Amino acid sequence: MTGELGQLALCFALALSLVMAVAGLTGARSEAATARAIAHGATMGMLVFVALAFGTLTYAFVTSDFSISGVASNSNTLKPLVYRISGVWGNHEGSMLLWVLVLSLYSGLVAMLGRGGERLTSAALGVQGMLAAAFILFILFTSNPFLRIDPAPFEGAGLNPLLQDPGLAMHPPMLYAGYVGLSASFSYAAAALMVGEEGWARAARPLMLLSWIFLTCGIALGSWWAYYELGWGGFWFWDPVENASLMPWLVATALLHSALATEKSGAFRTWSLLLAIGGFSMSLIGTFLVRSGLTTSVHSFASDPTRGLYILALIFCAIGGALALFAWRAPKLQGGAAFEAVSRETMLLLNNVFLVAACASVFVGTLYPMVLDAMGRDKISVGPPYYVATFAPIFFALLLLVPLGPMLGWRRGNLKEVLRALAPALGLAVIAALVVLLVASPRFLTGALAFAMAGWLIGASLLDVLRRRGARASAFAAALAHAGLGVTLMGVAGTTLWRSEALVVVGPGELMHVGPYTLRFDGVTQRQGSDYRASRAHIALMSGDQVKSVMTPEQRIYPADGQDVSVTAIRTTGFQDLYLALGDNRGDGRWTIRAYVSPLAPFIWLGGLVMGLGGMLSLWGRLRVRATLPATAAQPAE
Fold it and tell me: Average per-residue pLDDT in the chain?
């Protein structure tokens, strides 16, 4: 009955999402209080039934119910419990159910936290209901996770070994909580266009922050997984599916800044609406890339063209409908408030321009090869050189301006005073560049520029903290997020420019050298895991004749899946990583070993954590204010 219960729950959820859509849009009229109450009730009911369907599917995976097709294809009894649970979203059908669950959770938050006015909240719930209905229909007709197979196999095929990792157990839910969460901002923007009420940016901002935090942490976690799990030694490869999460993050970051200006001074009203539409549009495009079958990636799901066409039609309806609504309402929209050329608004405007331009460069680099392929032209690959030439200069220009915004006043500022106040940060930037040029080997001008920029960001953030001392903790959110960017920049520069590599074939007792390290290969032993067999290398890290530590990279074979997976070994000092991967067996006890020394690699993920903490501080401060003041009096915490 497991599959039937889940199927029934989804059908009830579909019915309630349709009620939610109709009642929510009807409740946008000032006299329709009953419809608004129905929309709120339908929202919570839909959440309950979607959660029941997801819980039912999870139970099927945990109990190894192989009569359900998805369980048989993505799990087996040998899997540890954590990977049987993560198998729920380790496939297309289950991940789409997770997608709808996250959408339902954000719909519930809109219903519970909505303070922008009853009509605005009701219209936003109506839009959320339409989105939920579309995706539940997609699941039921093209991606049903509860399909039965008869006869049921005695054993399942198992989860893709690459996905059997704690990081990947957490990475997809975090990403979904991020870019699916942008649906709430999209719905609020559409609702504002429908009912013409102000205050949508303030109402939506907590949900913008929540989705941005999850998206930031999800991208950082996925980058860490790619670094240590795939055996490539890098942290970002401009994979189309990686880019599918980066593009919404760039637009969401622009939206956060633009909505703050809209809320504080009334500037960028139309721009914020467009960014809210654009952020969720990027999320839908990312969903299409992952599930259309157009990309070949370790991140993507094998999908038939029907699914891709459905998602493409959904993108056309959602984006096209929102833009048509915007075009219809544009003549009636109020213009943004006036501000001087030197003001915080100007800096935020430039910030948004550079973020959108950076997103556009990634968008072109991701989709251009697919367009050529669809036109029957020669297949091409757009790799790091393209992004270094396009994305990097735009982002550097953005980082140069970041410290100026928090120091300038709203509507009017004094640039000379701000530059004078930021002089210590400029000094730190110069010192950082000189230290890199004098100490680092080999010398790279780009490395000096990167560390100068990092010093500029971190120094300005420290000055901002000192300027706000004594204020509430949430006042330091922007400084923390900007400092995190600087920390990540140092990590990216260090591991990209000064990484040492070695690829050698060694036998027992032989030495190899990589960077400042001397390693001794002590052979390979075999071991049996829960659902795999492993060849484990024993590599001693030497200090003279003494063994400092032993590192054990592995090659694992998963018999149920017929796949080999490399499990790397990483030793970190916090400032530098020694990274080892076991390669091919060359016979006579000799194996291929790949070794990397990556300076400052941990700073990449430390910076992401710091940025996420900055977002959490801002969200905490905003919710604290909303909890203590009535809706009409709540003011932003920044």
Answer: 89
